[in-house]
């Protein structure tokens, strides 16, 4: 707190009073047992910190922080839903408390061509944010050492790929903060978020989820998969076993026949939603909290009942509406799952229970708001860290794979 010595003591005391009623905001580093926490509860605590901090004389008088943001050349690697802007819709007055300095430099180039410490000093940088998404076969590129920074320059890793692709991202070297889908991240960011809680109705990105009606649907189950090889959980092998007992159509690059293509000019997922009851929302890797658009968008938004493989059942229950999905973990074998899907197909009353959440009095909304405010929450944590510094990782060699638990290769079932 020495850097704030020029401020009035009462301004500092205002912040200390807020900290007294603020729960720990750090992730795994500050509280190792996060199983009773949800992503939403952790984000809500960070939002409350921002709202309280924004009203203080401290934040109104303090020098704003300067954040260097590295942008990736690959369009698929981006700070999702942010538009590379700092947005605080719940506290607009906080939006000018950090300046974003955007620089085009991918992590692969950065790890091989480290800028000098003087580079960051000249820019007057307080923090550095960079994406660390590796893809299949690229993990060895993370073995190149991370750059080191001047004292008091904080680093953030923005990671949306699982450790199956990004295992060796080196968080420990600079004690980097972690922004990711995992609830143990310092800045948790879900791929999407369902809400009917007025707390989060500040955004304009919500989409109402319509009722489900499958009276005219004849086909049973479908998957849309284009990554046939770079997977850890053998999802295609599971589908092959499932197809011994029920018909399953596969679209995408892994399609089962050349006939499995969507009509030209029509939204493919909309088409699948009009033709099938069940959508196999199988991730490419089974890791804690790794739940992507396959659940949120491909299945639920397009009015199919998702059959999920990926994160553990309790992870799905914490982010999805009640009784809105079927988890493969609830069945000892693909045959048992097939028998259950056949039962639901024949019994409209049982099948309809998976759509009851859509008919609740308060409509559910699918939102991207908890990703769009990433830079706002990052900025706020830099101020939080000035008063409550982030604890260190277990060692300087701590990697992404050491934090986010994943099942071994070709294992699809989580232990009970």
* Model regions low in confidence, pLDDT < 50 over at least 5 residues: 198-209
User: Strand pairing plus helix content: what structural class?
Assistant: alpha/beta
So what's the overall shape?
globular
Number of domains: 2
What's the total number of strands?
14
The proportion of residues forming helix, as a percent range, comes to 25-40%
Strand order of the largest sheet: 2-1-3-4-5-6
Over all CA atoms, what is the radius of gyration?
Answer: 23 Å
- The percentage of residues in β strands lies in 15-25%
| Mean residue pLDDT | 89
The tally of helices reads: 14
Order of helices and strands: HHHEEHHEEHEEEEEHEHEHEHEHHEHH
Membrane topology: Single-pass type II membrane protein
EC number: 2.4.1.-
GO molecular function: alpha-(1->3)-fucosyltransferase activity
Protein name: Fucosyltransferase
Question: How would you sum up this structure in a few lines?
Answer:
By secondary structure, the protein is α/β, with parallel strands linked by helices. The chain has helices spanning 9-20, 39-54, 57-61, 107-112, 117-123, 163-166, 235-242, 268-275, 293-301, 313-319, 334-346, 348-352, 369-372, 374-387; strands spanning 65-71, 98-104, 127-131, 154-159, 177-180, 187-188, 193-195, 207-208, 219-224, 248-251, 276-282, 305-309, 326-327, 365-367.
């Amino acid at each position: 707190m020495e850097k704030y010595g020029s401020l009035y003591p009462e301004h500092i005391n205002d912040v200390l009073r807020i900290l007294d009623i603020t729960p720990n905001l750090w992730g795994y580093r500050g509280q190792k047992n996060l199983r009773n926490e949800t992503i939403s509860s952790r984000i809500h605590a960070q939002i409350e910190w921002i709202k309280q901090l924004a009203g203080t004389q401290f934040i109104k008088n303090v020098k704003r922080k300067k954040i260097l943001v590295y942008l990736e050349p690959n369009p698929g690697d981006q700070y999702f839903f942010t538009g590379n802007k700092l947005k605080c819709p719940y506290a607009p007055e906080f939006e000018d408390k950090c300046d974003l300095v955007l620089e085009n430099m991918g992590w692969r180039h950065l790890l091989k061509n480290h800028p000098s410490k003087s580079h960051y000093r000249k820019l007057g940088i307080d923090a550095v944010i960079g994406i660390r998404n590796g893809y299949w076969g690229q993990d060895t590129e993370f073995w190149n050492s991370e750059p080191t920074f001047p004292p008091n320059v904080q680093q953030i890793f923005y990671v949306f790929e699982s450790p199956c692709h990004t295992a060796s991202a080196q968080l420990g070297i600079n004690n980097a903060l972690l922004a990711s889908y995992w609830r143990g991240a310092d800045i948790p960011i879900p791929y999407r978020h369902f809400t009917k809680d007025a707390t989060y109705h500040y955004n304009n990105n919500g989409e109402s989820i319509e009722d489900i009606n499958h009276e005219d649907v004849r086909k049973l189950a479908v998957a849309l998969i284009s990554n046939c090889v770079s997977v850890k959980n053998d999802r295609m092998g599971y589908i092959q076993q499932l197809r011994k007992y029920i018909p399953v159509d596969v679209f995408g690059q892994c399609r089962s026949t050349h006939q499995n293509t969507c009509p030209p000019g029509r939204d493919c997922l909309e088409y699948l939603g009009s033709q099938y009851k069940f959508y196999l929302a199988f991730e490419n890797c089974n890791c804690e909290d790794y739940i992507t658009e396959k659940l949120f968008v491909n299945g639920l938004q397009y009015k199919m009942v998702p059959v999920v493989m990926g994160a553990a059942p309790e992870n799905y229950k914490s982010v999805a509406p009640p009784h809105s999905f079927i988890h493969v973990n609830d069945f000892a074998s693909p045959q048992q799952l097939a028998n259950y899907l056949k039962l639901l197909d024949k019994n409209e009353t049982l099948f309809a229970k998976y759509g009851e959440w859509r008919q609740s009095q308060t409509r559910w909304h699918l939102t991207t708001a908890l990703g769009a405010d990433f830079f706002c929450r990052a900025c706020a944590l830099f101020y939080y860290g000035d008063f409550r510094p982030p604890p260190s990782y277990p060692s300087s060699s701590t990697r992404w794979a050491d934090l986010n638990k994943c099942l071994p290769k070709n294992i699809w079932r989580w232990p009970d």
